[in-house]
Amino acid sequence: MSGGATRRPTSFDVAERAGVSQSTVSRALAGSPVIAEPTRNKVLKAAEELGYFVDERAARLRRGSTGTIAVVVICRPGESASTINPFAYALLGSVCVAASERGFETLVSFQANEERLFGHYQERGWADGLVVIGTTTNEPAWDYFRKLEAGGRKVVYWGSPFDELEWVRSDNHAAGRLAVEHLLASGYRNPCFLGALDTPQVQFTERWEGYAAAMRDAGLEPRLVATVNAATREEEGRRAAQRLVERSDGVDAVFAACDAMALGAMDAFAAADLAVPQDIGVIGFDDLLAGRFSRPPLTTIGPDPAQAGAALVEAVLGTEEGEARRRVPVHLITRGSTART
Amino acid sequence: MSGGATRRPTSFDVAERAGVSQSTVSRALAGSPVIAEPTRNKVLKAAEELGYFVDERAARLRRGSTGTIAVVVICRPGESASTINPFAYALLGSVCVAASERGFETLVSFQANEERLFGHYQERGWADGLVVIGTTTNEPAWDYFRKLEAGGRKVVYWGSPFDELEWVRSDNHAAGRLAVEHLLASGYRNPCFLGALDTPQVQFTERWEGYAAAMRDAGLEPRLVATVNAATREEEGRRAAQRLVERSDGVDAVFAACDAMALGAMDAFAAADLAVPQDIGVIGFDDLLAGRFSRPPLTTIGPDPAQAGAALVEAVLGTEEGEARRRVPVHLITRGSTART
DNA sequence: TCGGACAATGTGAGCGTTCACAAGTGAAAA
DNA sequence: TTTTCACTTGTGAACGCTCACATTGTCCGA
Predict the structure, then answer these.
(1) Nearest nucleotide to B11 by CA–C1' distance?
(2) Which is higher by pLDDT, B317 or B278?
(3) Residue range A171-303+331-338, CATH number
(4) Is A89's CB within 8 Å of B86's CB?
(5) Is the pLDDT of residue A227 over 50?
(6) pLDDT tens digits, residue range A120-157?
(7) Which of A31, B208, B254, B263 has the fewest other C-beta atoms within 10 Å?
(8) Which three-class secondary structure state does DSSP give residue B18?
(9) Long-range contacts for B137-146 (Cβ within 8 Å, ≥24 apart)?
(10) Is the CB of B22 under 7 A from strand D?
(11) Would you state the pLDDT for residue B329?
């Protein structure tokens, strides 16, 4: 409306208008009980008239607190904000909520370019801690994380491939077992695992291990249908499933490393006229919204994102060693894609 | 590893270690060309050894910049981070990316409780601007927004119900027309609109208006199947579709106000043994990932989230009036749910 | 030998707060 | 009246940084 950009009012402006000292303004606005009621009212009125808000960056500087945790979501190269695994979003959201519940702000950035990613870690050095969601293969990451930790900051990784870092993960072992048990109980005889083991995604590897252990316990041979890198997880799942169909070696169920892959696989099965769940059972991991609306709806295993987010925040704010290294429990959500009966 | 929490190093610590003055450290780290190369190296080495990072909150305080834009995602009451409309996440992501490209940080919060929401606006007052994603019916919001704007901050709303606020929206009118044109071209004769008009979601209302105008242009009577409030959008869509099925008044296609509703509706149609797209066509809005994996895949209309995010950031950072009030173009994505032929 | 120009570094103020401490009230107790 | 004390408010020093300005050192031409 008006012309020039007017300077933002400070507590001194409020003090002048209210006819008190600046520190009285500070106290009144901070809700200090020592301030007399009439004074407080004068101050509040003046502040409101001027449209004054406390400058948090100054307050925090003085107070010595940051009150902020940084969250970095690492995108895969070429991945945009809209093609990223939706589970990362759910996790991001619950991290923000959990942080907010503990009175912390969250500073969020999405990074695809690793060069810039590291630059950003530095800029964000002023946060109390850093939560990293996603995976990077970049080795120099170690050095950066070390530097950050030397600088008194804590870095917690969701599903880190680096053992030296603090991490929070799903109980992937349990997930693998749950998948096998459920598939066998549903009447499938030859469940295979669909995913990749040679990636920095340790979570995939752990799911495989859980799956393999459960298979052996049941007297069965674990089988891997390896995915190869593609533009999206769905595409990876689709291609791997196509190869599986061509092979046709008696596999009658698939435990996919993530829902996106499972959905891609279901797509491929439909194209090959294989009926899910009759001809082949499919179970995923993540509990994406998309899985609720696929035909058939996708049976899946997943952590509660709220629980996972809370665990991450606790880990990044907690001072106790060890306590931070946690496993988030997973749950089986049974839907149509494994309902053989 | 070590015991007590050591104080974070400051530029004075670096200066002492490097044997130079504090301001030389500042200059060296800021990349000032006036610093001699050997000095810069000494400083960089000392900084690295101490694990020093510039305290951005102090730097920005001194510099007078915030370099931050706040993003608030409003959840519907009872909605958790994982049940929120995924489009909001995609939008959030692209806002973060767009901001980062312009050198800004993003401070993100998810708010369900409106009381706290407003408290948070104040705390976040130190950002250069505020992007609000989601909808609130709360009238006092006006006052808060006014106060924020009086305080020199800019608030931009995604799909605001308040006309006095800056907003960025999809071109919902065009979306309504696109939907009708596509449905008629696909051989449907009686498309209805599924959604609610009495909500603060102006975007829904605008889509209805676009739909209604296109219907009249085609010589047809616009028809509304009203949704009523439920826990999730899917549930709202499901229930409205059930009523539509019971009515069976010749409607042969549905334009749902959002994908989540469309998916819920498809669920209800499947339960009622109505085949999509043969018996009834369905088209949504948002281009959710879930729509790509539904059976049949969902035809939808939507803005490019990246474009929308960029427009929001531009609006919140731009100084020009009017320029900020923008419409983001929408695109039709044709999939199975309207493939009658 | 000296002074001026230029390059590199040091000095000190101040960004807008909070907080420990000092100081000013007025009423109750001596 | 004087002392005491509770209750409020004012004063001034930080927080860690950047930037305008002052200072130092070095080289070169007169």
Answers:
(1) D16
(2) B278
(3) 3.40.50.2300
(4) yes
(5) yes
(6) 555 544 577 888 887 655 555 666 666 666 656 678 88
(7) A31
(8) helix
(9) B137/B161, B137/B200, B138/B114, B141/B114, B144/B118
(10) yes
(11) 93
Contacting residues of A for B7, CB less than 8 Å apart? 152
Could you tell me the end-to-end alpha-carbon distance of chain A, in angstroms, rounded to an integer?
68
Chain A positions touching B324 (Cβ under 8 A) are none
Residues of chain A with CATH 1.10.260.40: 2-54
In this predicted structure, which of A201-205, B52-56, B176-180 has the lowest mean pLDDT?
A: B52-56
According to the per-residue pLDDT averaged within each range, which of B8-22, B64-78, B125-139, B154-168 is highest?
B8-22
Q: Over pLDDT 70: what percentage of chain B? A: 81
CATH number for region B68-169: 3.40.50.2300
Which of A89, A147, A293 best probes binding to B when mutated, by most B CB atoms within 10 angstroms?
A: A293
Least confident of A25-34, A300-309, B172-181, B287-296: B287-296
Range(s) for CATH 3.40.50.2300 in chain A? 68-169, 171-303+331-338
According to the model, what pLDDT value does residue A67 have? 78
User: Is B81 within 8 Å of B73 (Cβ atoms)?
Assistant: no
Task: Tell me: cis bond preceding B38? Omega within 30 of 0 counts.
Answer: no
| Number of neighbouring beta carbons within 10 Å of residue B221 | 9
CATH T-level fold of A2-54 = 434 Repressor (Amino-terminal Domain) (1.10.260)
At B106-122, the pLDDT tens digits run 878 776 555 555 455 55
Chain B residues closer than 8 Å to A263 by CB: 293
Confidence of residue B59 (pLDDT cuts 50, 70, 90): confident
Classify each residue of A291-308 as buried b or exposed e, where b means 16 or more C-beta atoms within 10 Å of its C-beta: bbbbbbbbbbbbbbbbbb
Contact A89 B93 (CB under 8 A): yes
